[in-house]
Amino acid sequence: MRDAEWIRAFEACAIGMPNWTHEAHVRVAWLHLRRDPFVTALAKLGAGIRRLNAAHGVVEGLETGYHETLTCAFLCAIWATMQSAPPSASSEEFWSANPHLWARTLPRLYYTRGRILTPDAKARFVPPDIAPLPSPPGWPPVQRAD
Known about the structure:
By secondary structure, the chain is mainly alpha-helical.
């Protein structure tokens, strides 16, 4: 699916659960960051993921459903990659060119399991406790939590 179709399908909650993969999350995040400032992209992405999950009846649990801190951490990593990598013509090209983003465990560079897998981290952004996240413009610099 091309990017214009992909973002329309996301916004219309027309991406089937089997296709709502980690790669799909990264591609949609990249598309949002391409057209909006970080804070706006984060708001749109979070709202879109919640709507899509609701449309598919995803049960909210500690390890299921929308997770605010994970979304923020991945969006920061995607933003930082976009700043340092050669420009990509499409979300598929971006995905293929940046295999470090393929790791669903990427947030472990910034968070301990005990900090990220909490109801608080799921509901709202909590700062990392291992290393600072990249800090996009308009996003407060995130310092390591003590």
